[in-house]
Amino acid sequence: xxxxxxxxxxxxxxxxxxxxxxxxxxxxxxxxxxxxxxxxxxxxxxxxxxxxxxxxxxxxxxxxxxxxxxxxxxxxxxxxxxxxxxxxxxxxxxxxxxxxxxxxxxxxxxxxxxxxxxxxxxxxxxxxxxxxxxxxxxxxxxx
Length: 143
Ligand code: DQA
Fold this sequence. Notes:
The protein is of the alpha/beta class. The chain has helices spanning 19-22, 27-40, 53-66, 82-89, 130-142, and strands spanning 2-7, 44-49, 69-73, 95-99, 122-125. The chain has a five-stranded parallel sheet, with helices on both faces. Strand 3 (69-73), helix 4 (82-89) and strand 4 form a beta-alpha-beta unit. Helix 2 runs parallel beside helix 5 (130-142). It binds 1,3,4-trihydroxy-5-OXO-cyclohexanecarboxylic acid. 1,3,4-trihydroxy-5-OXO-cyclohexanecarboxylic acid binds next to loops. Substrate binds at residues 73, 79, 86, 100-101, 111.
């Protein structure tokens, strides 16, 4: 079954952006890993990244129309975007929220809230890039 892995703002710079927090794997490498991990689980994975909130809303609307599963790292939008909140609310396939770091353990208080969690079947955070593999595993278990 089809899974969209959607990554939000600044995640296109993975590998170069604050590697002490987000690691050294690039977004292109992450995308290849997600496709390979998905294939092992029998999932047809497509990975996308955008810095533009409206583009992300469009992709979530597409996922709602398709009824497909979504693995979402909404990055900073996680903490304040009601447009992303509303887009997630209408999904019919499972939604898994992923974060590379553990936002709740970070010093900025704004990171301690998530507008995604109310709609997610599971939150995977603090596992680095491997969190995407765990999230795809959650999707696979749900069928
Ligand atoms: C993040 C955590 C967010 O707080 C942050 O804004 C990001 C990445 C993560 O994957 O750890 O951009 O979602």
